């Protein structure tokens, strides 16, 4: 949320006043719902933020084109690149100069953007011309539909990088378009970028939630089901949301069955299998492995019937995970090798990366983990890239290559921070603390553990908290 305040001290101070004594989730929801109203006035100082912004916006030196461009920029929280400004709005060169002179716009590298409180007020009070809005929707939805499917495929990293810069703009326009007519393109775009959101940790579930509501209202069962399936995958990233993910998947499964869509049904069954396996892996919930195996086998039977070799490989990969969690290491190794071969035959680099990562961890083989990381990097699956780097760090620590272990762990930690993967970040800090402690830097090791402990408590991760406390006890107080 502080990032969304653009680091402006006054805006941060006003937000802090509103957040006092209130859960962070509630404050975040209020910001999504109320936006500028949360920053309206600070009675104790007798200052009205809205009136101050209005005074600047009524500056008589601003041309009509400058005001027109201001309304365009208000729809783009990530700003507009200089290249896109010139191609989309060739009339805007003099306008951007006036806005910059009036301190209404700022330049960050090659992008032009408005500060959040200016952007919100312009958006609320000065809608763009229909021609300009249409141009933005066409451009950014085309971007989503072109780049979204490339993420997770060969050479998907370039698409990932472009979406990383533009996802906030795409989401802003999606939410606006889903409130208006002709929502089919917006629903398609929301689905197309859902894998990017899952892999990157950027963006939010809001567009998919809205798209699902619209599809349901329109009576389109298939689109609603695909939205629910995509939403479930986002919820699977966070352990406390497994129940919600399962509910979404069961609802999507029913809709796919009613619509007679066997491919969607098979994907739901596979995701239900992963949900159950994850619940067992993290919380040792009894009966979950049997459930997971049942879901994967049902999905596999369906995938074989309509000849989908990649879908079949992912089902077998799920069965390999179940075998691994059952400590049937030889069976897991055999299945992972089978899926690696199947993914290789289909030139599916993401699937190969998943198989190589599991094989590398199972066999403690750094070469397989290194190859998995290369594939994850190439296709843009950076969350698993970070996991692969973390696993490589653990292997290096075990064999006593402490400098390499620290370097790899810091790379993983950097990615987890960029991806906003708080739980993985906490565990990675523990690993890094263990490395630097062995390297005779006890003060730094304690500081890392304290940071991990704080995160564990915020996330209510009891296992992570327990490990932090145990290591702190074992190590004792750091030297002064």
Q: What features would you highlight for this structure?
A:
single chain, 480 residues, mainly alpha, three-stranded antiparallel β-sheet, two-stranded antiparallel sheet, 5 strands, globular
Distance between the termini: 36 Å
Note the main sheet. 3 strands, antiparallel
Q: What helical percentage do the residues reach?
A: over 70%
Q: Report the sheet-strand fraction.
A: under 5%
Radius of gyration: 25 Å
Number of strand elements? 5
Strand order of the largest sheet: 3-5-4
SS class: mainly alpha
| Overall geometric form | globular
Question: Which segments are poorly predicted (pLDDT under 50) over 5 or more consecutive residues?
Answer: 5-10
| Order of H and E elements | HHEEHHEHHEEHHHHHHHHHHHHHHHHHHH
> Helix count?
25
Overall pLDDT: 88
Notes on the protein architecture:
The longest helix is centred in the middle third of the chain and has 22 residues, at 156-177. The strands form two sheets. A three-stranded antiparallel sheet has the order 3-5-4. It contains 25 helices and five strands. It has helices spanning 9-19, 24-34, 49-57, 64-73, 82-88, 93-101, 116-125, 130-147, 156-177, 184-192, 194-200, 206-218, 221-235, 242-259, 262-283, 288-305, 309-325, 329-345, 349-363, 366-379, 382-398, 402-418, 422-438, 442-459, 462-475; strands spanning 41-42, 47-48, 80-81, 106-108, 111-113. A hairpin with a 2-residue loop joins strand 4 and strand 5 (111-113). Helices cover 74% and strands 2% of the residues. The protein has 480 residues and is mostly helical.
């Amino acid at each position: 949320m502080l990032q969304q305040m653009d680091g402006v001290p006054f805006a941060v101070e006003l937000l802090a006043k509103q957040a006092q004594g209130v859960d962070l989730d509630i404050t975040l929801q209020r910001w999504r719902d109320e936006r500028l109203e949360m920053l309206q006035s600070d009675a104790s100082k007798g200052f009205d933020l809205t009136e101050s912004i209005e005074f600047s916006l009524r500056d008589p030196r601003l041309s009509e084109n400058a005001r027109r461009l201001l309304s365009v920029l208000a729809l783009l929280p990530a700003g507009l690149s200089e290249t896109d400004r010139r191609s989309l709005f060739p009339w805007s060169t003099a306008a951007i100069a006036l806005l910059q002179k009036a301190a209404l716009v700022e330049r960050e590298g090659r992008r032009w953007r408005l500060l959040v409180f200016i952007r919100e007020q312009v958006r609320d009070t000065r809608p763009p011309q229909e021609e300009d809005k249409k141009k933005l929707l066409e451009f950014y939805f085309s971007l989503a539909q072109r780049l979204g499917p490339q993420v997770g495929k060969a050479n998907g990293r370039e698409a990932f990088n472009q979406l990383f810069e533009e996802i906030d703009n795409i989401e802003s326009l999606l939410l606006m378009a889903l409130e208006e007519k002709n929502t089919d393109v917006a629903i398609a775009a929301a689905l197309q970028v859902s894998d990017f959101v899952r892999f990157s940790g950027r963006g939010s579930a809001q567009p998919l939630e809205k798209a699902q509501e619209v599809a349901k209202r329109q009576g389109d069962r298939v689109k609603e089901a695909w939205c629910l399936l995509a939403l479930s995958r986002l919820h699977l990233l966070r352990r406390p949301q497994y129940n919600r993910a399962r509910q979404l998947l069961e609802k999507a499964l029913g809709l796919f069955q009613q619509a007679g869509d066997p491919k969607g049904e098979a994907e739901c069954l596979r995701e239900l299998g992963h949900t159950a396996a994850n619940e067992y892996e993290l919380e040792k919930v009894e009966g979950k492995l049997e459930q997971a195996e049942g879901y994967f086998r049902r999905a596999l039977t369906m995938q074989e019937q309509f000849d989908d070799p990649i879908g079949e490989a992912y089902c077998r990969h799920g069965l390999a995970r179940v075998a691994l969690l059952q400590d049937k290491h030889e069976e897991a190794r055999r299945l992972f090798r089978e899926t690696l071969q199947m993914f290789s035959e289909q030139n599916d680099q993401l699937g190969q990366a998943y198989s190589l990562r599991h094989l590398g961890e199972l066999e403690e083989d750094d070469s397989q983990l290194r190859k998995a990381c290369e594939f994850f990097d190439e296709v843009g699956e950076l969350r698993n890239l970070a996991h692969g780097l973390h696993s490589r760090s653990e292997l290096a620590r075990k064999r006593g290559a402490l400098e390499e272990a620290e370097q790899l762990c810091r790379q993983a930690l950097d990615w987890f921070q960029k991806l906003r993967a708080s739980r993985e970040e906490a565990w990675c800090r523990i690993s890094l603390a263990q490395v630097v402690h062995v390297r005779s830097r006890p003060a730094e090791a304690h500081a890392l553990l304290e940071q991990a402990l704080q995160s564990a408590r915020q996330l209510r991760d009891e296992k992570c908290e327990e490990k932090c406390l145990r290591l702190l006890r074992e190590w004792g107080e750091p030297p002064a």
